[in-house]
Amino acid sequence: MPSFKDYFKPKQSEEGEKIPENVPSPTLAPPALPRKPPPAKIFGELPNSSPDLVINLKSDVIVNWIHLKQEEKIWTTGQPGEGVVLRKAKGCYVCCPSELQYDGSKLYEKVAQLNVCAAMTVTTRVIKLILARDNLPYVELTPRHRIQVIHDVAELPFCQKNQCAAFISSPGMLLVWADDPGVLLDRAAFIQDTLMEKIWMRDSTRDTTFDDKKLTLVETNSSEGFDDKEFGEPKPRQTVLVQAFLCAATMTLVISALGAGATRVAIEIYVDKNYYRLLFALCILPQLWLSVFFFQALVANIAQIIGPIGQMNDNTRYFSGQPPRKLPRDGTLPHVTIQMPIYTESLEAVIAPTIRSVKAAITTYELQGGRANIFVNDDGMQVISDKEAQKRQDFYEEQGIGWAARPAHNPRGENGKRKFIRAGKFKKASNMNYALALSVEVERRLAEVERHENWTRTDEDLAYYKALKAARNATCGDAWAEGDIRVGDYILLIDSDTRVPQDCFLEAVSEMEQSPQVAILQYSSGVYNVDNNFFEKGITFFTNLIYTQIRYAVANGDVAPFVGHNAWLRWSAMQDVAYHCRIDNVEKYWSECTVSEDFEMALRLQTSGYLVRYAAYKGDGYKEGVSLTVYDELMRWEKYAYGCSELVFQPLKYWPTRGPFTKLFMKFLTSSMPFPSKVSIMAYIGTYYALGSSWILTLSNYFLIGWFNGFLDHYYLDSFRVGFAIIFVFTFLGNLALGVLRYRIGEKSLISALAENFAWVPLLYIFLGGVSVHISQALLAHMFSIDMSWGSTAKEMDNTPFFQEIPKVVKKFKYTLCACLLAAGGIVYMAKYAPVLWRIDLFTAVWPLSTLIVTHALMPIVLNPNLMLFTW
């Protein structure tokens, strides 16, 4: 029995013959770039052969071989308009039989306009019988997948290209196509076999349904119908209160700790009547803010070990642990746009694999009856060389991708070019805003077009390209754009190094359609590794840890986060919360005033009454890349810290006129968002201030304990005891609770989970212990309005030799390393050579500062694979 995976994966034919080696292995979606075939010596050994001659010979061999198989399977009647068409170069095709190009059928011409690598007709009596019915909108393969029907060959350029097949009513045939010639035969065979299977089963008491997990057709009793999750009204979602109880426990511990300190102050004041101790009250709010996350982690760890976990498999207000009921496919499914902002990433190594993954999902969605388009926001197109830019444009055209690009950052109008400012420090938000504004302008111009009664798809396409050209011209040539850049009902926001599940669109749009109050549907993500070095694996573990904790917290009823990728956004909600920028008088969607545009967007939507929901039923199906180097990971932490500071505080110079807090933060505090969610968000933001202040507090503790030990007020808690508590809660109890949780939810065995958790303790201890100075730099840079900027993280590993990596480390960390050397020397001096009464040699004073110095010094060295691998 044929299976749906055969639609994209060729198998060995019954005759035992195999696809020739020089035909790439197929995939569901056409590959982003033609894969390099194995060396074909028969062509390479031709004397005085040119590259064009070799390409021509290879193309002729492949097209004739496919046509031969077409005739063997009796898929052609020899009539005009039947055969195989193969692209051998951009805009240049070869066909077999050769008469196909001039037989008047226009198939050759329309396949060229469709811009696919290879296409083949299939004409059989079964197909003609199926298409004998007029006005057939589609042909159903399975209850979940169907193939389009077009009237004639003239409509081919306007069909749903990503379905990779179309039935043509006149003259009654099937056309299959792919960017991979090896797929054609198996794709055609799958469609024909599936149709026959459906016809044979139609008169029986059983019907065929589709098993997503096995990707196979399975038989079910027709009286049973579909699973109750397939159609029907969704069940109402309840609000889980577990997080509310955990929040209450957290605040109880925080207030108790502060109360214990206040009790000691009160007793001391009663004894010695020293009312200066009341100044400790100024520390209450900072202590409260910085300590919430610590106690929240303590409570969560205990709950993960002994608390309920059934909610992690339920569908609740903010969490989806199970797939939603599918939308019925008798109507029109929502239009989806995949938005992918990119910069100067490698086309072959980074962008193309992501496009292949996305196009596989698009093909599945279009076979289910939906429509989707890819919209690339290419911020590198006008920055890279002309040769690389043309290569990208050819790739986008080949894959049917819409794209938009803006000029390079040129605030002074240098090199004879127009002045152009790329707003923002991270530039991603302004990149997406520019592309979306161009799309909206195209829509505005299309809305002004008057459509007559006989308006056709050809007329609509011509109107679109006129509107696109007019929108480009309105920017005085600044904007470059081609392809379909219109935005659909929902936006799937991805990064350039993303992988998506093959069958994910229908579930996502079903959930969004059934929950109109949800503006963002954030999916849990897994990680795919690029280089597999120890640092990348360590960050992979840490990323998976974060996603597990997010999944647990949101399932308990906490607010769902928006991490900026692998998320579905409601376009209408984004338009509702759009703001008018006074700087350039343009309506914008993403904030260009903060580097945490995703966090700001989530706050803006939630304070406007929308919800952010977290979906975990796809497991690790969505995948993302992680930082490959310590430089990139440190840059991410600096950017997040800077962004959190931007969200809460005004720079110091604005405090006299605007006050210390931002309008968005005040709106957040006074919004109707649940109180436990506000506590969680404030705890998250407070972690950056806790990490950033740790080196300052530890240095102060060194002198306070070293010189005034025994004379300090009992309200003061020294760094040694604080550090011990942190190690116990996060390092020991945290890893134990994570292992138990993963065991309880069935992800891993208890022993393997605990072994993995504690194996990465040294790496995370060094990294988290060494980020304090760098985070404080970002926080202080914002408060004092010091300019900082960050580029995109590396998507490919640059394996630099040992002696070339040393200068990079020195350049990046020279001030940190110098400070560590001075501090280490100071500790030695104060312990051995300072005057006796000024010496500091107490262990509880020296140990915390020594640990801080060691971790800051070791982080750029021992966490750098290019140094630790000792390559020359």
Structure write-up:
The protein is an alpha/beta fold. The chain has four domains: 4-193, L-fuculose-1-phosphate Aldolase; 242-312, no CATH class; 319-626, Spore Coat Polysaccharide Biosynthesis Protein SpsA, Chain A (Alpha-Beta Complex), CATH 3.90.550; 663-868, no CATH class. It has a nine-stranded mixed β-sheet, sandwiched between helices. A seven-stranded mixed β-sheet has the order 2-1-3-7-6-5-4, with helices on both faces. A three-stranded mixed β-sheet has the order 16-23-18. α24 runs antiparallel to α25 (843-862). It is elongated, with a radius of gyration of 31 Å. InterPro entries: DUF7928, Glyco_trans_2-like, Nucleotide-diphossugar_trans. Keywords: Membrane, Transmembrane, Transmembrane helix. Residues 58-207 form the DUF7928 domain.
